[in-house]
Amino acid sequence: MSELSHRRQMLVLAICCMSLLIVSLDNTVLNVALPSMQKELHASVSGLQWTIDAYTLVLASLLMLSGSTADRIGRRRVFKAGLVIFTLGSALCSLAPNLESLVAFRMVQAVGGSMLNPVAMSIITNTFTAPRERARAIGVWGGVVGISMAAGPLVGGLLVDSVGWRSIFWLNLPIGLAALVLTWRYVPESRAPKPRRPDPVGQLLVIGVFGALTYAIIEAPSAGLTSPLIISFATVAALSLTGLLLYEPRRAEPLIDLRFFRSAPFSGATVIAVCAFAALGGFLFVNTLYLQDVRGLSALSAGLYMLPMAAMTFVCAPLSGRLVGNRGPRLSLLIAGTAMTVSGVLFAAFDAEATTTLMFTGYVLFGIGFGMVNAPITNTAVSGMPRSQAGVAAAVASTSRQIGQTLGVAVIGAVLAGGVTAAAGSAPYRAGFTDASRPAWWIITVCGVCVLLVGALTSGDWARRTALRTARRLEEPSSAQVATGTDSKA
């Protein structure tokens, strides 16, 4: 792809950010609507988990396939297809007659969503080639997450209270259509010079790992940890993971190039993404139910309560992008890990939800932490990799985010479901919810500690040396490529 003018680069960045906006807005708006969905669709806690995790699970399973496909057949082509499918899925969600249909239509949304964020990040990576410009562009990208977190609860709460929860999916229709037209007009086509071949076996193994593990976690509270069903799904997940680790290195062009993980910064970014987004998924899930079901707030009031967290994410995301561009990822990661850890401790050990001032303090700290963590994750994931594999590298980072959010909602939802047995709205339910949320907050705290420790370990001089060695190895043919005669010089 030829170099674009600065004005055209900014326009491409804006179009890519529109896709991120509808995907991120969809998640934040949906969280505010959960209690309303629960009442109208007569859903259990596990049913609410599936409305979120059906989306993130499919998204995580298909992101790497979408990234490699975009590298192969054209990033703009895949991006446009994603916009069409996501917009169509949003329209179907607004018409869902029951919980099962809603979950199915959310999966349609996810198929389209898998073609948006990693492909958009690949487009950005190939548009902004200078490291500092790329870091700042990624900071703007992260700021869009803050916008969605700020606008989502407010807009979602207003729509839920005035029109109903179905209207939250209408938001995606005009934005998706506008992004489609602008992409067709302004985004140039780009492909990887030597893209990878399809890997259907690897894709099935990825689906087996994520799908079976998520199902086992969500359904364990109702079925029992030792039930044959849960044990069977846990076994499928373990066998799929084992198969993935054994099969992928033998392929000349694998879906997941495990050599990526020889880079300490890349591996660290993957772990940090899982932990940070697990904390986010759990944080939103617990607080949405607490504010509306326990405190009795309306959807709009609950959105206003969450505004301090969203506002700090909005402020800190572009600041983090500039810090990463000027000083590297270390400082952003240390701030993020510290803030998320302290926030979790306030709720887990000091009952922050019992005092509005302390609760808002916890919200602000979590918003700072999450705002600071996104830019270093993305920048670290793509900056050390060959540009020809930008789509795959970005997809791994995006997959890690979705895995984290899926596991966060699944695990923390399972903790709540196991601790809350009374019907929603009753006094025992309120007391049981507060008690059951305590271990959930400790889980969020542990996620913050992991962000802090892994960030410190994988952002120093030793880690940078491993990234340089990995980049050189990725430009060389693997043993499998040599054996099959498909190296990069072939």
How would you characterize the overall build of this protein?
This protein has two domains: 6-188 and 255-474, Growth Hormone, Chain: A (Up-down Bundle), CATH 1.20.1250.20; 197-254. Helix 10 (264-294) packs antiparallel against helix 14 (356-383) and helix 10 (264-294) runs parallel beside helix 15 (390-419). It is globular and about 55 Å long. The chain is 80% helix and 0% strand. The two termini are 22 Å apart. The chain has 18 helices and no strands.
Order of helices and strands: HHHHHHHHHHHHHHHHHH
Question: Which fold name fills CATH's third level, the topology of the largest domain?
Answer: Growth Hormone, Chain: A
The total beta strand count reads 0
Based on CA inertia axes, which overall geometry fits? globular
N-to-C span: 22 Å
Low-confidence stretches: 422-428
Q: Could you tell me the mean pLDDT?
A: 84
The level 1 CATH classification of the largest domain is Mainly Alpha
Counting DSSP H or I runs of 4 or more residues, the number of helices is 18
Cα-atom radius of gyration = 21 Å
Based on secondary structure, the structural category is: mainly alpha
Strand % is under 5%
Second rung of CATH, namely the architecture of the largest domain: Up-down Bundle
CATH superfamily label of the largest domain:
MFS general substrate transporter like domains
Helix content: over 70%
Characterize the biggest β-sheet.
Answer: none
